[in-house]
């Protein structure tokens, strides 16, 4: 197996809510003790419902949100607590692609300025050949070189997302967090962007943390998948394993919730009831127990640890051994 | 790939500037106000060159009491035998100059305080906003009366005082803009690229807040003119013999019953100018921040 590029251990991101001079307030545990590894050149999918903490986790890896506790090691360097000067140097190696291509480009800057700023900030190339590089980057993501002179509002959603990708690639990163990069796009455009990411990944050997909730996209693009629920990792497995033999009831319910092409196909589905509990006051023990059809009393007592159940397959469920989810 | 050719030729989107102008022209009071202000600017710039009198030139035969309006002195003369119209026009120069300069200072100070407050949040925000609240809670005129008892300000000092008494509204506005814009993804993208605080504030956030700041600066011009007039009327502003609309009103007030033609023109001009500036600000706001 390839060397580990990103190593996250027991990462926590807690937000104080309503704290003021006069009251203590409460704590929202957006990410609560997540560990995961991403190998060089590997694409890892991160799935979960809205509010599961997957976006916060992605931001915390890049220190766009300050982690409360835990460690993120990037190619051997501890990122948490890294002084600003060193962090800036590291920023050229880890980048992010955003969900909303309308919000992620500064409307008052031309495309050339947007991409050129990345080059400028990391002193890549001389002032003279930056225009050349911007043109090359635009071509790499399938846009004409002339796009540099135009402003973001002149482009469609898919084109804007390509500009966002070009900006991320400008600094030659090793690792990219792709935060639901296709969720805001039309289905036909989604395929183009996914193919582009696939091509770039092969060409540049990128490691990608692909955050999403569309399981078919994740299955197509990712080597490995991490399932998150309420700030905790529920299950992690290779894409092939996860889709054919899920071991966690939550994973099973996510797979069951995905639409299938044949409406008449009879399926024995696990349907989740109710909403995600509040991360301000999460359930004791296993956070999923309040919506789990297999929950027993013991689930409220112990917080399940991730147990290895197969090659590169780990599950956080105390009943995983006795449950047969693929009958 | 089908997406590679840019389908931009068929409908060329209008630039932001052009859309702003188009919407502004639909706002009738603002357009009329702009016309009025341009006319006023023209008159006060070239007026003193065309007048046969100087603002402090006295006609000794007319000293003692205000003179009536006639062919030589269209708006009459004051009690010292000076031509009222020349003084009114020259006073407009002073009033508008102090008003504009004061508004520039207020906008600059307010933008800086608001930007730091909204961008850094936390204790920086707490400190700066409580300071803003304190400044807002000080009643302006009593403070000025107190100061005027202590010293007579020079014009630059007066401009500074006017600016420092009216920056708070801008600061609050800019803070709210920065609080909202700093969370936008394009700012986060720049942060992910390693852009530092000043770059994020002035290159990414500020250009996107320029609309509200322009509006606020326009409205500040109105406040500054009002404040300068009030200060000069109370004797704390520009000192005679240099005229401003405020001190013209002051000196005319004692002759109000016998020579109302001295008090009405400066009063009317203050009213119209401040009104026009506010209409202009409204028009700019509607044009730059359409609530669609």
TrEMBL record, chain A:
Domain called ABC transporter: residue spans: 6-255
Places the protein is found: Cell inner membrane
Single GO BP term: peptide transport
Recorded GO MF terms: ATP binding; ATP hydrolysis activity
Stretches that traverse the bilayer: none
UniProt xrefs under SMART domains: AAA
Protein name as catalogued: ATP-binding cassette domain-containing protein
Entry membrane topology: Peripheral membrane protein
Family designation: Belongs to the ABC transporter superfamily.
UniProt lineage: Bacteria, Pseudomonadati, Pseudomonadota, Alphaproteobacteria, Hyphomicrobiales
Organism: Devosia oryzisoli
Top-level division of the source organism's lineage: Bacteria
Keywords on record: ATP-binding, Nucleotide-binding, Transport
One cellular-component annotation, GO: plasma membrane
From TrEMBL, chain B:
Subcellular location: Cell membrane
GO biological process: transmembrane transport
Listed transmembrane segments: 29-50, 94-119, 131-151, 157-174, 209-238, 258-281
Pfam families: BPD_transp_1, OppC_N
Organism of derivation: Devosia oryzisoli
Name of the protein: ABC transporter permease
PANTHER family: ABC TRANSPORTER, OLIGOPEPTIDE TRANSPORT SYSTEM PERMEASE PROTEIN APPC
Membrane topology field: Multi-pass membrane protein
